[in-house]
Amino acid sequence: MILSRNRSWIFLFFVLLFGATAPLVLFFAFGYRYSFERGIFIFSGSITVKTIPETVNIEVDGEPIPKKRLGLLNNSIHITGLMPGEHTLHISAPGYLPWEKRLIIESGVSREFWNVILPHTDYPKDTFAATDTTERAYPHPSEANVFALIKHVENEISITLLNTQSRQAKQVFSLPNSTLDIHQEENLEWSWFENGRFILVPITTQGTAQHFVIDTTTGTFFTLEEQTGLTNISLARWETQQSNQVIFLAGTTLYRLTTTPGSIPEPINDRTLTYTLSNGNLYLVTTDGMIWQEKSGRLIALKQGRTPPTNQSALLRNIYDSSHFALLEKDNNKRLFLFYPRPDTGALTFKEGGSMIDGMQFSNDGKKLLFFSNNEIGVIFTHNWEVQPRRLAGDIVQVARFSEPIANVSWAENYEHIVFSVGPTVKFIELDGRDQRFIGNLQNLPAPPTQIISSFSENRLYFIVPNYDITSIVFPEPQGFFGQ
Description:
This protein is mainly beta.
């Protein structure tokens, strides 16, 4: 009888214990935490982080988070159960510099950081011998390991093809009494046809600027000036739709030329201020301020009315597609004008991005435009940005301003970081400006680099420094099966 009563009491005790603890467990499972300060249950928040490298140590408010508490989703780290309020997130890994931000946690909200890169404390580098006379390097359009190196030795310009994987080099062109202006707008152009067999490059020889078409297989060459009889050629580029065709300006006339012997240049438009090629399409700005796209041999106006520049100043142009393009004055105030579609109507609108701008570069999706001066970096958004930190189309973000001159500014592979140099130091900075932007050093070079090349397909950066061999580092580093 006594045993029966004890069993009843024991059973009743466990029933009451279950009734008391089950709600607490459910509250905890659904993200609620008890606030002893306020005496109530509060819906907690969380943090989601994706990092390079993937294996990291995480601390919140100075307390290490055990790995068993870290949830993994989409190859990212999810930290739950954080009380609303200000917290400090610290991420570190052996051999890397730490990353840290202060953030505000809100009830039921996850703070997301999808592009955290920890830089190595010391990057191992590759050095490519016998490249110390290189002035500029240009990557092959389809072969990731091949570069055309323009070298300058004793008033002679030469072009060498370098395979960075096999370390083999082959000189394909040389010209005595010649120079190359490394600061000019025109660059060396690989042909997209015949696997980059032909190279188009502007070189000054005996005081005269000429555009050389070089066959890298045979070593033969000719100049556009010789073939056309024109002397004021500029902005020569390979046509992207037809093999063996070049587009160039002569004064204000835009021409198309087949490079076979005896061909005659065909005029496209005689009032062209500047032009560019993007995604296989030809775009041009005429001297009356109109912007056009060539379609089926006809010029179609993209924008009615004049472009914002009120005079016929020379323009740089960067076009992503027919609704995302930017114009930059080369003289006067060097103003930047960005054209993009309004999110609500899709109608083309424009925004002035600033003045005294030196360069610009679209992201790979056309949704962001990087621009920079000699001491400042900024980004304009062309679309509403739904990923944290959220932005609206037309928002201008001042990424960084420096007291020293900066150079070699370009997007990193994820288009959420920017690579640049300050003197001999190569740096990168994140676009995410919550709390403060992380700036990391990548390399301390022996002298200021004249060129930094991002090879996204290799996850590599190449550095061209006068009188020093070319060097390279892996950045950002690939991350496993699901990584980059």
